[in-house]
Design a protein that fits this description.
CATH class of the largest domain in chain A: Alpha Beta
Strand content of chain A: 25-35%
Shape of chain A: globular
Radius of gyration of chain A: 21 Å
Distance between the termini of chain A: 30 Å
Order of helices and strands of chain B: HHEEHHHHHHHH
Number of helices of chain B: 10
Oligomer: heterodimer
Strand order of the largest sheet of chain A: 6-7-8-3-9-10
Order of helices and strands of chain A: EEEHEEHEHHHEHEHEEHEEHEH
Helix content of chain A: 25-40%
Number of domains of chain B: 1
C-alpha cells in the first residue's frame, strides 16, 4: 500500500506538487493522468526518493519512506521516463548490476535474466552495449530490469512514451498480466487511452494538484456517458448527458453540424481542468 | 555487499576500457619524466632531479588517476546517463556506494602509480617504495576519489568537472611538491600549499624513497581530508533534495 500525505515539492518559488494526498491499495493498478508539467514525474521522483519532499510524507505499507529505508526500497522498482542506464554496459551487465544493487545472488540474477530476456525477445541482443540499442529495446530492457528484482510495487513514469503502437500494446498486455499476479502498479501517463484501458482508478492531476480520484468509468458516468459535440464558429462545444435519450433529444434540436458519441476520460479532464491532454 | 557491487561495476569498466585507462594514466607522467627528468638534467636538494621527480610524479599520477576515475564518470552517470538514479532507488545503502567509489578510485590511482613505477624500474635510482609508500599513495587516491564525488555532485553540467580540474587539480599538480619543494614558495602561500593533500603525499613518499626521516603527521592530515570530503559526499546522497 502506498500513501501520500500532503506531499509537496517546491523548486525555488515554483510548486511542482501541491499538498497531494493519496492512498493506493496493494494490488491496485492506479493511474496519474495529467498534461506535461502537471507534477506526475515529480511525484514519481519523490516516491523513488530521487527527490525529497519539501513537506508531507510518503508511507509504504504504513512505514515512512526515506533514502535510508532499504527494506522499503527493496519492494519498489521504478521505470523512469529517461533511460537511466550506463551507456557503455551491455544488457547482461545492466541486469547483473541491478541484481547486485538489490543483493540478489549472481546465480539467481543470471537465471532470471534468461527468463526475462526470452520473454521480451532480447536474448539475441544481449551482448550489445546500450548505446547501440533502439529506443524500443531500451524500454524493454528497462522493464526486464525492473522485474528482475521481483518487486511488490512498480512505478512507471510514462512507460510507453515514444513507443510505436504495437510495442505499446505489448507493454499494456504485460502490465495487465503483472497486475493480475498481484503487483501494485502506479502509472503516470498523458495518454488517455492508456489510463482508461489499464487503470482501475485514476487521479486527474494538473498544476501540481489532484483534481479528482475515481475509476475511469465512474468519472465518465459522473460527467455523463453521452456527449453531443456541436461545431460552432469558435470551435467544438460539447454537452454531456446521463441518458442516451436526452442526448438524442439534444442532437435533434440542433441545426448545425453535430455528433453523438460516448464520453471519454479526456472529456472528464477537459471539463475539470480545461486543457487538452495530448 | 554494496561496496562489492560498486567494485564489480568499476572492475567491469576497467576491463572494458583497459587500454584507454592505461594510456591516459601513462602519457602525462611519462612526458614529465622525459622533459624534466631526462631532458633538463639538473639536481635538486643535492640529489639528481630525476630522483626528486619520480616520487612526486607517482603521487601526482595517483591523484589524477583517482580523481578522473570518479569525478567525470559519476558526473556523466548523474547528469547524462541518469544511471545514478538506479543506485538511489535501489536498497543498496548509499554510504556503501560512497565507500565503494572511494575504494575503487583509490585502487585506480594505485594502478596508475604502479605503471609509472614499472616504467622507471629499470633506471638505477636507488629509490625505495615500500608498503608504507603504497599505503600513503592509497590514502592520497582515496582523498581525491572523495573529492571527485563531491565535485560530481556540485557539477551542474558536463563542463564543470574539467573546469574544476583546471582551477584546482592542475595547479596542485604543479605546485604541491611535485616538481619543486614547497620550501621555495614564499611565506603565506607556502604553508597553505604545504598543507594540501598532494604536498603531504609527495613529501612523505619522497622521504621514504630517499631514506630521509619522514613526519607521518601527513597521514593524519590525509585522513582528515578523507573524513571531511566523505562526510560532504554522504551529506549529498542522503540530504540533497534534488539529486
Amino acid at each position: 500500500m502506498i500513501e501520500l500525505f500532503h506531499l509537496t515539492k517546491q523548486f525555488d518559488q515554483f510548486t511542482a506538487v501541491d499538498a497531494i494526498s493519496l492512498r493506493i491499495e496493494t494490488g491496485e493498478f492506479f493511474g496519474l493522468l495529467g498534461p506535461n508539467g502537471a507534477g506526475k514525474t515529480t511525484t514519481i521522483g519523490m516516491l523513488s526518493t530521487l527527490l525529497l519532499p519539501t513537506s508531507g510524507e510518503i508511507r509504504i505499507d504504513g512505514e515512512l519512506l526515506t533514502r535510508k529505508r532499504q527494506d522499503l526500497k527493496r519492494k519498489v522498482s521504478v521505470i523512469t521516463q529517461e533511460y537511466s542506464m550506463r551507456q557503455d554496459m551491455d544488457m547482461d551487465e545492466i541486469m547483473e548490476y541491478q541484481g547486485r544493487l538489490y543483493f540478489m545472488p549472481v546465480r539467481q540474477i543470471r537465471a532470471r535474466t534468461e527468463e526475462l530476456f526470452a520473454f521480451a525477445g532480447l536474448t539475441e541482443h544481449r551482448r550489445k552495449t546500450i548505446r547501440k540499442l533502439s529506443g524500443g529495446m531500451k524500454r524493454k530492457l528497462m522493464v526486464c530490469r525492473a522485474l528482475l528484482t521481483e518487486p511488490e510495487i512498480l512505478l512507471l513514469d510514462e512507460p510507453t512514451a515514444g513507443m510505436d503502437a504495437i510495442s505499446r500494446r505489448q507493454m499494456w498486455s504485460l502490465l495487465r498480466q503483472l497486475n493480475e499476479k498481484g503487483l501494485t502498479i502506479l502509472l503516470t501517463t498523458h495518454y488517455i487511452e492508456e489510463a482508461q484501458s489499464l487503470c482501475g482508478r485514476v487521479a486527474l492531476m494538473n498544476g501540481g494538484k489532484l483534481n479528482e480520484i475515481n475509476t475511469p468509468s465512474q468519472l465518465i458516468q459522473n460527467l455523463g456517458a453521452y456527449a453531443v459535440d456541436e461545431l460552432l464558429e469558435d470551435g467544438i462545444h460539447s454537452r454531456y448527458f446521463h441518458e442516451r435519450a436526452e442526448a438524442i433529444a439534444r442532437l435533434s434540436s440542433l441545426s448545425g453540424q453535430c455528433t453523438l458519441r460516448d464520453t471519454t476520460l479526456e472529456d472528464v479532464f477537459v471539463e475539470q481542468v480545461g486543457k487538452r491532454l495530448s | 555487499m554494496g561496496i562489492i557491487t560498486i567494485l564489480w561495476e568499476k572492475w567491469r569498466e576497467f576491463v572494458r576500457d583497459f587500454s584507454r585507462i592505461t594510456m591516459a594514466a601513462l602519457i602525462a607522467p611519462l612526458m614529465y619524466l622525459i622533459v624534466f627528468g631526462w631532458g633538463i638534467r639538473t639536481t635538486m636538494n643535492g640529489m639528481p632531479y630525476l630522483n626528486f621527480l619520480i616520487p612526486g610524479v607517482v603521487a601526482l599520477t595517483t591523484m589524477n588517476g583517482s580523481f578522473n576515475a570518479i569525478a567525470q564518470n559519476l558526473n556523466v552517470q548523474r547528469l547524462y546517463e541518469k544511471a545514478f538514479d538506479q543506485v538511489i532507488i535501489s536498497p543498496t545503502p548509499l554510504w556503501q556506494f560512497i565507500a565503494g567509489q572511494i575504494l575503487a578510485g583509490a585502487l585506480r590511482g594505485l594502478y596508475a602509480g604502479a605503471i609509472i613505477l614499472l616504467l622507471v624500474w629499470p633506471i638505477e635510482t636507488g629509490l625505495i617504495f615500500n608498503g608504507l609508500s603504497i599505503l600513503i599513495l592509497f590514502l592520497n587516491g582515496a582523498v581525491f576519489s572523495a573529492l571527485g564525488i563531491v565535485v560530481s555532485f556540485l557539477a551542474r553540467n558536463h563542463a564543470d568537472v574539467p573546469r574544476f580540474s583546471n582551477y584546482f587539480i592542475m595547479p596542485m599538480a604543479y605546485l604541491c611538491n611535485t616538481f619543486f619543494s614547497t620550501d621555495r614558495i614564499p611565506h603565506g602561500a607556502r604553508e597553505f600549499i604545504a598543507a594540501l593533500p598532494l604536498s603531504q603525499t609527495s613529501r612523505m613518499v619522497r622521504g621514504i624513497a630517499t631514506k630521509e626521516p619522514v613526519n607521518l603527521l601527513g597521514i593524519l592530515i590525509l585522513l582528515a581530508y578523507l573524513v571531511v570530503l566523505t562526510g560532504i559526499g554522504l551529506y549529498f546522497v542522503y540530504k540533497k533534495k534534488n539529486l
